[in-house]
Amino acid sequence: MKADTLAVHGGFAGDGGSGASAVPICQTVSYAYNTAQALADAFAGRAPGYIYTRIANPTTTALESRLTEFEDGIGCIATSSGMAAIASAVMALVKAGDEIIAAAGIFGGTVSLFENTLTRFGVKTTFVDVADTSNFADALNDKTKLIFIETIGNPRMDVPDIPAVAEIAHKAGIPLIVDNTVTTPVVFKPGEFGADIVVHSTSKFINGHGTAIGGAIIDAGNYNWREGPFDQIKNLSQRVGQLAFLWYLRNVIYRDLGGCPAPMNSFLLLQGLETLPGRMAKHCENAEKLAQFLQSHPNVSWVNYPGLKTSKFHDRVTKLFAGRASGLLTFGLGNKEKAFEFIDSLRLAKNQANLGDAKTLVLHPASTIFGEFDADELGPMGVTAEMVRVSVGIEDFEDIKADFEQAIERAFKEKE
Amino acid sequence: MNLVVNGKNTDITDGLTVSELLTKEDVKMPQMVSVELNGKILKRSEFETTRLRADDKVEFLYYMGGGTCL
After folding, report:
1. Which of A51, A190, A357, B7 could form a disulfide with A210 if both were Cys (CB 3.0 to 4.6 A apart)?
2. Topology annotation, domain A3-273
3. DSSP characters over A315-332
4. pLDDT higher than 90, residue A18
5. Closest by Cβ to B65, choosing from A13, A241, A251
6. pLDDT tens for each residue of A364-391
């Protein structure tokens, strides 16, 4: 099935009992069995069956199946948030004494997980600049257990050479985890370019309407879990083959950490997926136009959008994303005061900490989502005081442009 | 022809697809099952197009999970 069809029909063929064509919301904690033996068999894994919604739920199964098909993977586990997805996927693979290589300039929440939380558990992360792919190879050592990158780094907007990074990871016998939140499988399928595990914050473009927090982990099927340095998964592969990573997640890490989605949220995320292809096309189109408009504006100091021909990542956007650079951009207005005045002057765009919404959203990252980091830490993350982040929505472009035009004008007028 | 399904010899009609095998074997919770063919997990989109050959090894696998600790 093509993406537009998959979005509507993937993972759910209709409810045989009621005939419902929308995925039913199974708002239940657990599941009744007719006999003690049947429940004992389900617990022991001798027979498939739902037991407890922290482990699996039919509404969430439909979401997982649709996401598996979208990413062309071998299976998916949906989580309560993007951070739950990243934490679960990474914690399934690392132990005290291990190391991670991660792209610099990725989401602040992920940086905090790696730098603050995992460090307390004896796991060290080295952040590398993705512009020069050899940085990944240089950072490798015999303790490195995985490489973590984003397709488009948020907010630094860097685009790694994903196939080349995958090759480096595979030569070292370790998996590559790719966060595909910003591009979504409509624009890019990391598994087709060598990624082993794909993670998402589904709260963003996939949800698309700012109504549900969620995340997902997809095994792209590229990594051979029968080999590799993960004894806990390698042993399982003798029983469940290539599903060993997902099985380990489901039955150990995901179950133990408790990061399951609410069934209602799985439903809302399925609804979002149905319109994702159409929305992504509009996000990409509007963002490119807005980036060009801002680049030509005399009061804008710089624009960072990898889809611009002037971006050093434009070639990678062309090669990997067929020229579509999603709906996220950043730009500078000279200083923090101008950035604040611009945000305060907007009439249409909303000032809020989210991205991928149908509505245009703006944010001042340095004082909000990156507020916990010192000034000297912000530089390598690509965050400056003058920077505004924009998640370009699907409104009519002329209305977005008019809003930005008047807000920039007001920001600069008030100072004169 | 003969297949090995979950470790057991199984006689099937020549040219059967993976989808047809799932129906023939009356696999439980087919929406949840993953199919490993000769050591490789098939994508769901391949179920209808993959025809089985003699002596193929097929495993029906689930990762929906139980409650029992490892």
Report:
1. A357
2. Aspartate Aminotransferase; domain 2 (3.40.640)
3. HHHHHHHTT--TTEEEEE
4. no
5. A251
6. 999 998 888 888 888 888 899 999 999 9
Q: How far is B33 from chain A (nearest CA, A)?
A: 9
- Residues near A152 by beta carbon (within 8 Å), at least 6 away in sequence: A158, A159, A182, A183, A306, A325, A326, A328
Query: Residue A127: how many CB atoms within 10 A of its CB?
Result: 20
Residue to test with chain A: of B57, B63, B68, B70, most A Cβ within 10 A: B63
Per-residue model confidence (pLDDT) at position A296: 98
Measured between alpha carbons, how far apart are the two ends of chain B, in Å? 37
* Whole-complex ipTM: 0.79
3-state DSSP of chain B: CEEEECCEEEECCCCCEHHHHHHHCCCCCCCCCEEEECCEECCHHHCCCCECCCCCEEEEECCCCCCCCC
| CA gap A101, A140 in Å, rounded | 7
Question: Do the Cβ atoms of B41 and A221 come within 8 Å?
Answer: yes
| Torsion-angle region of A346 (φ positive above 0: left; ψ -120 to 50: alpha; else: beta) | beta
Mean pLDDT along residues A401-407 = 98
φ and ψ at residue B41, rounded to 5 degrees: -70, 130
User: Hey, where are the domains in chain A?
Assistant: 3-273, 277-413
Q: How confident is the model at residue B70 (pLDDT cuts 50, 70, 90)?
A: very low
The answer to whether B9 touches B2, Cβ cutoff 8 Å, is yes
Chain B residues whose CB is inside 8 A of the A252 CB are 70
Reading the block at residue A303, the tokens are 């624009």
Report how far Cα A298 is from the mean position of its chain's Cα atoms.
Answer: 34
Interface of A with B in 31-90 (CB under 8 A): 42-45, 47-52, 55-56, 61-62, 65, 68-69, 72-75, 77
The CATH superfamily holding the domain B2-61 is Beta-grasp domain (3.10.20.30)
Ramachandran bin of A364, using left for φ above 0, alpha for ψ from -120 to 50, beta for the remaining angles: beta
- Cβ pair A395, A359 in contact under 8 A: yes
CATH of domain A277-413: 3.90.1150.10
In chain B, domain spans: 2-61
Cβ atoms < 10 Å from Cβ of A211: 14
Q: How many CB atoms lie within 10 A of CB B9?
A: 9
Q: What is the pLDDT of residues A107-156, one digit of tens each?
A: 999 999 999 999 999 999 999 999 999 999 999 999 999 999 999 999 99
CB B28 within 8 A of CB A48: yes
The answer to whether the beta carbons of residues A148 and A103 sit under 8 Å apart is yes
Among candidates B39, B45, B65 on the partner chain, residue whose Cβ is nearest the Cβ of A56:
B65
For the stretch A250-291, pLDDT in tens is 999 999 999 999 999 999 999 999 999 999 999 999 999 999
> Does B63 contact A55 at a Cβ distance shorter than 8 Å?
no
